[in-house]
Amino acid sequence: MKIGLGTVQFGVDYGVSNKDGKTPAVEVAAILAAAGELKVRVLDTASLYGDSEQVLGNCLPAAAGFDIVTKTPQFAKPVLDADDAERLQQVFHESLTKLNCDSVYGLLIHRADDLFVPGGERLMAALTRLQQQGLVAKIGVSVYDSAQIDQILQRFDIDLVQLPISVLDQRLLVSGHLQKLKSAGVEVHARSVFLQGLLLMDVSEIPAYFAPVRHVLESYRAFIRARGLAPLQAAVGFVSGLTEIDQIICGVNNAQQLRDICDAANVELDCGEFAGFAIGEEAIVNPALWRLEPGKS
């Protein structure tokens, strides 16, 4: 199954279209049970996702067989030193305790720019040590753009990368960076395939912030409607059809949503037909830059 389960909603309120808030523990258990039935393999979490790791550790059944990917703290300092590398390892061991597991499938640098400041190499060295100790199978980084990918591939050996891609955000596809990663033997996990639910919202509900691209969204909806596709099928099917993508990380609020996403991933689409809906403006395709009305951020 190419669908992986994002768990940020298990720890914090998240998503422009999320009206349900943080997912209750009883629903988390139901989601994880459904994930097992659907053969969803990857669970994506992070030390910064509130108490998501703790919730997973409490709810995961014994010998669940999931591949867990978690992430480091963010440092955001002009220079990194040995204490920062030590903090990375300490937080990781805390993550293992919270997750109630002895090792994880993947550990990612959460803030790619932390690698590019003086001393940033200390962080990757710390990840490598954890991997050598058998605590992590694959090490890598979460990225936002092609410049970060270029710098990382030039300086470090990584096994895994998580990156944004969607019908609206095709920057890394168009630039050839998806293929560049695959040629380097890097496993690629896609995130933001729904743009926090923007691609699933009714056009009438879209926040005013997106008014400059409303015509694109309306055209896109007309396009998929003419082809008999539901918004979920189009959004998931586009990314699922990209051969460079190994896993599609999707967050859900309930078990039925996960089943619907897995069903949608089986729809075969010609990804090239969606090229006209790509938006290059980062203020639109990068949720970290969104400036929404109070209560919609």
From TrEMBL:
UniProt xrefs under CDD domains: AKR_unchar
Record InterPro entries: AKR2_Oxidoreductase, NAD(P)_OxRdtase_dom_sf, NADP_OxRdtase_dom
Domain NADP-dependent oxidoreductase: 2-274
Annotated TM spans: none
One Pfam family linked to the record: Aldo_ket_red
Highest taxon, organism lineage: Bacteria
Record's protein name: Aldo/keto reductase
Organism field: Methylomonas aurea
